[in-house]
Amino acid sequence: MGIEVGSDQLRVMHGAISGNVLSVYDFAAEEILISNPENVPQQLESLVGRKRLDSHPVGLTLSGPGVVHRLLEFPSMPASELAVVVEREMRLVGGGAGEDVVFDWEVIEEKDAANLKEVRVLVAIAPKSQVGRAQELLARCRLKPALFTTPPIALLRSLGFVQGEGKGLHAVVHMVGQQGCLLGVKDGVWSFYREFSSRAAERGVDALLEEAVREANRALLYHRQRYREGGEAGFLLSGEKGLEELQIRLQRETGAHGEIVRPGPGVDLSPLRERENIFRDLFPAFLIPLGLVAGAYLPAGINLVPKAVRKTVRKRPSIDLSFIRRPGLGVALVLVFLSIQLVLVFTERYYRGLLAQRTALYGQWVPAIQASEESRVLRENERLLKQAIDPNRGGGKSWMVLLKAVSRLAPPELLLSSMSVRRDKDKGVWLVTLKGQVVSADSYAAQAAFNRFYQGLKGSPHFEGIELLPLEISTLAEGVERQVSKEAAGGPGDGAVQSRQEAPEIRKTKVQFELRAQSRGI
After folding, report:
1. What residue ranges do the domains of the chain occupy?
2. Residues 364/357, Cβ–Cβ less than 8 Å
3. Which of the two ends of the chain, N or C, has the fewest CB atoms closer than 10 A to its terminal CB?
4. What are phi and psi of 99, to 5 degrees?
């Protein structure tokens, strides 16, 4: 969407490029009621909201005394090196008054000068504050920026969609309000640029026409001095009003032909329907919005929008359906579509029948498949049972051998409480964990008994990589009851009386342990 904010009018155009055709979908022009910084965003937001265009990326022009253009010439070099050189030149130029600036550039022409290839670079420079105000304007209207450029560059982009643009030298005269500009174009390439305005004491269309005719005379003199063999220059006239009178005065006073711009073959106005003729009449005033729409689709060009907030615009795919209008091709196309449809129908029927046959065949084999599956499960269970009870599994080392090895190493005081084994598939070994305890009346004896068991495991060929976790040593207290017989007072024959007597507590040492080891033979 291209938006031109003039001194007294807002112009908005919604369009898109598909292939080489720019389609115009909608347009609007409104007089600015109150020219102040607060009213323009509100009026623009209201206009865009009524047109329901707030979801489209926007192209906007920057103009004013701080916006300048530079033409630079350099020897031919790679684009990466050229970017460094241009940036250095702009750093030397600066912002004129010490103000931060934003700039962008593009190569507009490559030419041969003697034995050296040269490139002409066009640079657009704008104050950073003005770019920020343009971003704030679109942000207040809830619009996303796709392109910030200058009016002459927008005019240059629009020439590809103007009738009679052709080759040679053209001077585009554009007048809006009390301001005007003259852009010289040679074979579609920027040549020179001039701005003019009506004098403060002579406001009106006539005063602006006088300045336009004066600038046209200067452009003709410049053309005759620089391009002596290039033929006469032609003028393309655009703007709001006074174009017919300017055309007459150019013919009368300069002898040059001025042509009011009209839509070219690359502009499609059919989406406008009944408003197509209205837009044709207003086309000269919408040349800058048209150039903004065209410039937004250029992959490389001058764009002053910061890359961090820039909305990328891509061309829509184009499909040429003009051949449908030919009766013969239309009938052939219909026959091709019918043939494809018939092929698809018969192919679907064939595969449906084939699927039905396969389903019936599968139903016949279902009992055999189920019996085979049950037999496979039975054989798997038998194999697992055989592995569990086979004493020779694992190369002659079985659970019985392993348990015997542990029982032979265990002293009488040692009690094995648990033993777990799991398979480590990555290392190909069995991980064995032993937990138990040693209880003895003597602490030294308990630890010595465990040490004999531990050393025996380390020396056993059945285990490797033995790891001992910290021991837990504690003390137990046990009491023992004793029976005592006492004779009766009458003598030995009178019988005896038995009684129970508590013995002193016996303290024992308990050593709890946990061992981890690896075995390859289980």
Report:
1. 1-70+125-163+261-319, 320-380, 399-482+501-519
2. no
3. C
4. -90, 145
Global pTM reads 0.58
Residues sharing a CB contact under 8 Å with residue 144, sequence separation 6 or more, in sequence order? 57, 58, 138, 309, 311
Instruction: Please give the Cα distance from 167 to 99 (Å, whole number).
Output: 39
Alpha-carbon distance of 112 to 287, in angstroms, equals: 33
Per-residue confidence band for 340, with pLDDT thresholds at 50, 70 and 90: very high
List of residues 6+ apart from 15 with CB closer than 8 A: 1, 2, 22, 23, 24, 25, 290, 293
In the numeric block, which tokens belong to residue 221? 């003199």
Range 307-316 contact pairs with CB under 8 angstroms and sequence separation of 24 or more:
309/135, 309/144, 309/145, 310/145, 310/146, 311/57, 311/144, 311/145, 311/146, 312/146, 313/57, 313/146, 313/147, 315/17, 315/18, 315/19, 316/16, 316/17, 316/18
Q: Residue 395 above 80 pLDDT? A: no
The answer to whether domain 1-70+125-163+261-319 and domain 399-482+501-519 are alike in fold is no
C-alpha span between 336 and 321 (Å, rounded): 16
Instruction: Please provide the DSSP assignment of 27-88 as one string.
Output: EEEEE-SS-STTHHHHHHHHHHHHHT-TTS-EEEE--STT-EEEEEEEE---HHHHHHHHHH
With bands split at pLDDT 50, 70 and 90, how would you rate the model's confidence at 344?
A: very high
| pLDDT at residue 349 tops 90 | yes
- Long-range CB pairs of 30-35 (<8 Å, 24+ gap) are 32/6, 32/7, 32/8, 35/7, 35/8
CA 285/CA 279 separation, integer angstroms: 10
Tell me yes or no: is domain 399-482+501-519 CATH 3.30.70.60.
yes
Please report which helix (H) or strand (E) contains residue 361, including its range.
helix 327-389
* CATH-assigned architecture of domain 1-70+125-163+261-319: 2-Layer Sandwich (3.30)
DSSP string, 247-276: HHHHHHHT---EEE--B-TTEE-GGGGGGH
**Residue position matching structure tokens 């139903």:** 363
Burial status of residue 219 (CB atoms within 10 A of its CB: 0-12, 13-18, 19 or more)? buried
Number of residues written out for the chain: 522
- Helical segments of 52-179, H only: 79-93, 128-140, 151-158
**Residue 396 carries which DSSP code?**
T
